[in-house]
Amino acid sequence: MMVAQLSSELRKLTTTWSWWAIGAAMVLCTTALVAVLLLSGLHLEQSPLDLSSVAGVKAVYSLGAGITYVFTLVAGIVVVTGEYQTGTMAQTLLANPDRRAVYLSKVLAAALSGLVFGAATLAASVGTTAALLATEGLSPHLGESAVAQGLGGTVATLTLWAVIGAGLGALVRNQLVAVVAVVVLSQAVEPMLRIALPGGAADYLPSSIADAASGGTVMSLAMGRSALEQGTALILMLALTAAVALVGAHRFRRYQVT
Hints:
It holds the Pfam family ABC2_membrane_2. This is ABC transporter permease subunit. Keywords: Membrane, Transmembrane, Transmembrane helix. This protein has helices at about 1-15, 15-45, 55-60, 65-70, 70-85, 90-95, 100-135, 145-170, 175-195, 200, 205-215, 220-225, 230-255. The protein has about 260 residues and is an all-alpha fold. The relative contact order is 0.15. It has one domain. The model has no long low-confidence stretch (mean pLDDT about 85).
């Protein structure tokens, strides 16, 4: 039953244009931002990016976890709110009254979406970076263990953001409200808080935790490196994801079929 429900959720996702549009937009946006950052770093005399160092290159690779992660958040929201939006949630729950299985399948579908989008985005980021660095005779540092840890942390972080999005979608239900809220919070409110709050407090904002969990991003370089170690940050990111998913599960169980 669980396998059939998950398969159904994946079909719902991949047969709608919005899922493909979100993934394509994330890859294109990341590629464009990476290209701009690299060209600036390579040609500006006072660039903050040291592209000859492992840390500088790794920060560019992890750009998706620092900036474009909002796309995976939105993808997770769409997994749950899509059926509220179209009015098909009642039919889904009548066909399968086991709400735990329905919700879990949506969370797993969101996680798989985050994993796919994260891997595709990272491939675009790494490919663009390696190609542009090669034109300047610089190493992409892909054989470095620190870079490998950063790449793994970035994919894991983007996957978890999608699960958080699913939890938020179950909590808010209104797709437009949920999407607008996460865009405003992630792209405007949190960056301002990271600047305004003292270092110790700012390190525990969700975006700061995600930056540290991915091994450091361009946002870390711009706003100051987090004091959190990558392993600790990953544990905190998992705890945040579990908390949001559980709150979403409670809200999902209370949905009234009409």
